[in-house]
Each structure stands twice: as structure tokens, then as C-alpha cells.
Amino acid sequence: MENTLYSIAGILIPFIGTSFGSVLVFLIGEKFSEKFNKIIVGFAAGVMLAASIWSLILPSVEMAEEQGVISFIPATVGFALGVIFLIFINKLAEKFENKRSGKKLNMTIFSVTLHNIPEGMAVGVCFAGFLAQNAGISLLEAIVLAIGIGIQNIPEGAIVSMPLKSGGMSKIKSFGYGVLSGIVEPISALITILLINIVVPILPYLLSFAAGAMVFVVVEELIPEMHEKSKSVLGVIGVTAGFIVMMVLDIVLG
Description:
Layout: H1 2-11, H2 13-27, H3 34-66, H4 72-99, H5 104-132, H6 139-166, H7 171-182, H8 184-194, H9 196-199, H10 203-226, H11 234-253
């Protein structure tokens, strides 16, 4: 029961990150400062890259070995499927944008919400592994991953709520839409945990699937955002710091 309560609290962390980003609509101007954005986006990218390796791919390999499966097969297949899934999501988002030409803001909300689904799955998979207690995933590892995704969600909540405010919507409503864009994360995480009996046998594939999805987000979205407008070492510093923090936490506390 105690582990279940910890897991329920843990899957809410990314949602809290999105909500915190939405709260910024009350606290700052029309947008993040460029320097702050580069650092925090870089930090989130570093955390997610390290989490993909130590919290997802390595446990996937170890669990596959315990199941008597060729260790690299689930990691390879799952990772590739995770990337393919995100490619499909992006294509779907592009079609939505074409059908709703002139409504770029709606596309932003739609895109952020869609991308939150696999992130929620990543958290849910980790907590499902923790609850199974045979996947090599500790509570601390699952929480650290949730915190990493929560950090990444801070600018996501802001990029939904702040343009709405600048477009004339009230701060309360803008905040509400930002929060709603992140609600899919705890929902998808909870569904994953509830299906734990189905999830555990295919957990090596799901772990690497989540890793592929997160690496896609890093390469497709976060890295380009770090170099938007002007090149700077701030993004690289953020990536380095995020990667080291996540790596150390996973190795020392995991």
C-alpha cells in the first residue's frame, strides 16, 4: 500500500512541472528570457538523455537477461518503436495544423498535449517496474526520472499559457489551458501502472520504447530550441549539468 501511494505521488510530478510552467503566466512578462530558456531546456535535455540510458535502457537490458531473452533485442526493438511512434505523432500534428491553417496556437497546445502521452508512459513504466520489484528499478530512480520530465515540462506549460495571455485571454483561463495540457501525463502513467500484470512481461520493450520517445523529443525539439535565435554555450552547459546530475543520482542512489 505504501509503495502504491509513493507511485501515485510520483506520477503527479511531471504534471506539477507543467502546472508550475503555467503559473509563470502570473509571474513574468510575455516570455522567458533567452538565456534562462537555453539553460533550462539544455538541463532538461541532459536529464532526459541520462535517464534514457541509466533509468530505461540499462534496466531493459538487465531484465531481458533475467527473462532469458537476447539482451539487446528488446532494447533495440523498443527504442526503434519509441522513435517511430513519435514520428507518427509529429506527422499527425502536422496534418492537424494543415487542416486548421491559421491556428498555430491550437497546434501548439495539441502538439504539447500529444507529446505528454509518451512522457507519462515513461514515468508509468518506471513506477510499474518499481512496483513489480523485479525490474531493477528503485523508487528513487523512478522519482528522479519523474523530476527530470517535470523539469522539461516547465517551459511546455509556459508555451501553452503565455501565448494565450498575450492573445488577450485572461490569466486564469490561460493558466487553466496550460494545466489541462499536462493532465494526460498522470492519466497515461496511471493506466500503465494499473495494467502492471500485462506490462511486466513486456517491460524491457516498454522501457526502451520510452527511452526512444524521450531521445526523439531531445533531438527533435529541445536541441533545436537551445540554438534558436542565436548560438550560445548556455544550452551545452545546461545539457552537461543535467546529464551529470541525473547520472550521479542514478548511480549513487539507484
